Amino acid sequence: MDTFLLIVTFLIGYIIYFLIKSMKRPTDFPPGPQFRPWVGNSFELRKDAIALSGQHMAFENWSKKYNTDILGLKLRDELVVVVLSYTLVHEVHLQEVFEGRPDTFFLRLRTMGTRKGITCTDGKLWYEHRNFAMKQMRHVGYGRTQMEQHIEKECNSLLTYIENTKSEPIWPGTFLAQSVINVLWCLTAGQRIERNDKRLVKLLDLLNRRSKVFDLCGGMLTQFPWLRHIAPDKSGYNLVRQMNEELHHFFMETIEEHKKRLTPENADSDLIFAYIREMNNHLGAENSTFNETQLTMTILDFFIAGSQTTSNTLDLALMMLATRPDIQQTISQEIAANLKFNTDEFPHLSARTFYPYLDAFIMEVQRYFHITPITGPRRALWDTTLGGYNIPKNTTILIGLRSVHMDKTHWGDPDIFRPERFIDSEGKTIKDEYFMPFGQGRRRCLGDALARACIFSFLVKIIQNYKIECAETDKPSLILQPGITLSPKPYKVKFLVRE
């Protein structure tokens, strides 16, 4: 009996010890909600995110509650810090110590059970493959004339699609992503995908569903991976698995086809050819990181970086043009003045200095709607400090871009949609340091060049040819749908041919 009591006492003491330990904050850790036993702040974050329509709103609410612009919390056993001011966001963007990525269940699930690709990796693998991929993408025209030529061709296809709507009400969100993806796919695989390709339609639907099911922290799957066993559908696990399988099959079809056609003459003509050549050059080499899994994950990173955020920004821009005819009229007049003597001249991004109001309008759409309100996640590579607080090694850092883009002290009237805030007294656009939709530093968004070029050129050509009006039903809403990225609620507009 004494032995039994001793064992029970030991177990109770053991449980109490770990219970107290799970609630203890690290020394000089940023302020925030009290850690709950075992689960940290996981459940209260989820509860507040649902109530306030987004994780970013929960963080901002906590920031006010604890009177701090740097929050410290715990999601199960993961320490998390959220930065919510320009100074701190700028520091996290540029400091090497914050260039790491967390190694969580959800991030590994995103990359098909691996920790590969570019977006979700760090260290040597990240340096090597980011540099290789960006070098090869530039070689095939990323951010240069060749990309502009792809954009021009895809823009013509987009205008044809709009023409075929015959001014019937339609939601732009149903067709914009295909146009953006095709520009990227031409650079990646050297070919475009037909708009009615069932595989592409299915993949874009999966990406769209994924963005709404998860938040930046991967939903509850990251903190409680065992949920996949008891609630595979509700937790989103089956959705990601399905998307992984579809993407892998889609990418591997193209990779296998490239292998058959690889020659010395075309080895640099697109990213996949260049990567296969690099794999062949590393055959037999010890510790080589060039393999098919890494290639598929690299393609996936560009696929995600170049699709949803860009098409959602275009979607929101068209929505605002429909709801603000005054702004649309000003942009239309600016475009007409620039194309007065040559209506066939294609408006590439390099010409944006001649379109200061349109340029300012695009920036205001990105600032006002902040479709990626929380970015990251980053990982502290070693013990460090931030904002006067201690940040232990491996702490996850989340970056509050919305708080910077809606900083009332800096912007004055951030809740007002006003493109003029980006125009100076001479009528030229202003580069504001608080405006950072693509991030900063070496972790800057992979798809920024594609996004900026597509958004600008597509909008010029659409506004040049069509007047956008709200439909009588399905009116636009300024309240966006939460998720990994924010997206507009379905609405409909009419594209009316300009006289």
Measured by DSSP, the beta-strand proportion falls in 5-15%
Low-confidence stretches: none
Q: What structural category arises from helix and sheet content?
A: alpha+beta
The CATH superfamily is identified as Cytochrome P450
The CATH class, by name, is Mainly Alpha
How far apart the termini lie comes to 95 Å
**SSE series:** HHHEEHHHHHHHHHHHHHHEEEEHHHEE
Mean pLDDT: 88
- Kindly report the spatial arrangement of strands forming the biggest sheet: 1-2-6-3
Major pleated sheet: 4 strands, mixed
Q: What is the share of helical residues?
A: 40-55%
CATH topology: Cytochrome p450
General description of the model:
By secondary structure, the protein is of the alpha+beta class. The protein has one domain: Cytochrome p450 (Orthogonal Bundle). The chain has helices at residues 2-23, 42-51, 55-65, 86-94, 105-110, 123-139, 145-163, 176-189, 198-213, 219-223, 227-230, 237-261, 271-281, 292-305, 308-323, 325-338, 356-369, 401-405, 408-411, 448-465, and strands at residues 70-75, 78-83, 374-379, 384-386, 389-391, 396-400, 466-470, 493-497. The strands form three sheets. It has a four-stranded mixed β-sheet with strand order 1-2-6-3. A two-stranded antiparallel ribbon has the order 4-5. Strand 4 (384-386) and strand 5 form a beta hairpin.
